[in-house]
Input
Amino acid sequence: MVNSEMPAPVLRGFCIFIQQLIIMKNLFIMALAPLLCFGLAAQNKTRVIFFGDSITELGAKPGGYIPMTDSLCKGEGKGEQFEFMGSGVSGNKVYDLYLRLEDDVLSKDPDMVVIYVGVNDVWHKTLLGTGTDPDKFEKFYQAILKKLKDRNIKAILCTPAVVGEKTDYSNPLDGDLNLYSNIIRDITKKNNLPLIDFRKKYHDYLNKNNPENKDRGILTYDGVHMNDKGNQFLAERMWNAIKDFK
Output
């Protein structure tokens, strides 16, 4: 309470001081408000992590399918709704994804995870003498999904696309790729999850666009890893699945 017997000059100075405090408080609130709004907007973005092997590791680089997915998102005016992150490691198989799930995915608090794995589980059987047996592939995949479900994280599954781009099923690993793709298709049905069936989508595209039956150079530069067209092909279908996933 202001003393009514306070000398007039002192009283005026005190009132001016109070007014200055009020002005400073209002200025502080005005300066802080945009930062708070920005923080809230960032928190409201759907965080999507692409989880996979070298295709995803390369896909996170400039010109890769993850920046392309972000561009498609922004092109539709939804840039403030989504945030995209890559978590791909060269050579990874499904059990590698399981082992690094906590550190590389769960610790980043995603809302959605796109799982793109399976090529090395097949390819490394002949390339390096390793790989993943079908029963173990399914068990590790299901274990990953359980951990995501326990955290209420949405998941989108992808079948492996190609190891060789020939269209007549003469690529040496076509049979195994079809087998592991069928395992993933069954997993999506069991868990009622969306599927991006790249195995089928690539084959359909190559049937129309690879008349010379080349083993590479259409959507990949080496039969496995994406060239520019391949990255665009992935991005368009990834984005369609992400934006439609309720």
In short: DSSP finds nine helices and five strands in the chain. The chain has two domains: 7-44, 46-244. The longest helix spans residues 8-44.
